[in-house]
Amino acid sequence: MTDRVVVTGIGLVTPVGSDSKTTWNSLLEGKSGIDYISLFDAEGFESRIAAEVNDFDGEGILGRKEARRLDRFSQFACVAALEALEDAGIDMATEDADRVGVLIGSGVGGIMTISEQHKVLLNRGPKRVSPFLVPMMLGDMASGQVSMMIGAKGPNFSTVSACATGTDSIGEALEMIRRGRADVVIAGGTEAAVCEIGVAGFNACMALSTRNDDPQAASRPFDTGRDGFVLGEGAGVIVLESLEHAEKRGANVLAEMAGYGASSDAHHVTQPHPEGEGAARAMKWAIEDAGLVPENVDYVNAHGTSTPLNDKFETIALKRMYGDHAYNLAISSTKSMTGHLLGAAGGIEAAFSVLTVKEGIIPPTINVDDPDPECDLNYVPNKAVEQKVDVAMSNSLGFGGHNASLVFKSFQQ
């Protein structure tokens, strides 16, 4: 059993950068990654905008043959995992592979492959369906492919909790190391759902923004003019280690992972609880797990989807959890720039929270031009703020009533 777990590596593939350095710099500049959809012809769709990953070279990094046998969501995960391992300075040749785990989740898995191969089935018949359909579409395959790619032989599975997936994956990785089952876990989330059926489905449940005339202003969390989230894609992966293992190999510690809390609203399939009860409980349990009190928290990376209900109810949850201290918090929704990466959101936002602690700079919530009076907290509007952050929280809320919160703090020996 071990008490302390630290973050030693970060890997990111996002709509604002194909690596962690580019992504972080884009966030601090308030750069939006949202534009018109290029991955398919979106003419006739209610939403014709998305946050796509540009300049992604999966074949160049993974090899043409290998990349072609992976759905886009698995490619993202593999590339992000390689960057995270390099950032952590981990050489698998010198590691005990049995003590290295992989927990990378996805909310919808290989939806692109399913969509493409269903067209093949209808147009060309069952014998023309790809033999790689099943391994490409399975939601656990991002985690499985990373495990095979790097030779990690410890626990390897995928959590699925909709938009809380990446957060729960990292939380369970924390618990796995605490239990003594692994020394190192590569954890996070990945998603690639910008395809016809993905956009049409979210449009059908009226979740997406239809601000097609101004893509970069479409994701506007906590603003009066918000009308839905913008679908994004990418992956966020971090390397967690027991402190003992990290110190033994002389690792550069980015932050300490201190707490995890998860709860269920048990309320509605898509809408958050109107009193924020479940989200507040997840936050409470994460803070307690970290051995802290609410007043210790300096920054919250909010779920902040830019939907009318989420932002209002998450604000209620923050007030319910933090009381008067809610007004002292710096809070931002980086989805204003990256869009909503569904199961990958918690992975990239955990990484952003770690970087906020490490760098002492809080990324902004852009497009807060007319703040909603019911969302009256400090959402760090439009410009990044330099501020020392000792404790950061990352929140994720998912369809099905899932709530998950992570707590990171500055590392002290």
Walkthrough of the structure:
The chain has 413 residues and is α/β, with parallel strands linked by helices. It has two domains: 5-248, Peroxisomal Thiolase, Chain A, domain 1 (3-Layer(aba) Sandwich); 262-401, Peroxisomal Thiolase, Chain A, domain 1, CATH 3.40.47. It contains 14 helices and 14 strands. The chain has helices at residues 20-28, 58-62, 64-68, 72-88, 111-124, 133-137, 141-150, 165-178, 196-204, 243-248, 277-289, 308-322, 335-338, 345-359; strands at residues 5-13, 35-36, 49-50, 100-105, 156-157, 184-191, 234-242, 255-264, 299-301, 330-332, 361-362, 385-386, 391-398, 402-409. It has a ten-stranded mixed β-sheet with strand order 5-4-6-7-1-8-14-13-9-10, sandwiched between helices. The protein has a two-stranded antiparallel sheet with strand order 2-3. Strand 9, helix 12 and strand 10 (330-332) form a beta-alpha-beta unit. The model has no long low-confidence stretch (mean pLDDT 95). Residues 2-410 form the Ketosynthase family 3 (KS3) domain. Belongs to the thiolase-like superfamily. Beta-ketoacyl-ACP synthases family. Pathway: Lipid metabolism; fatty acid biosynthesis.
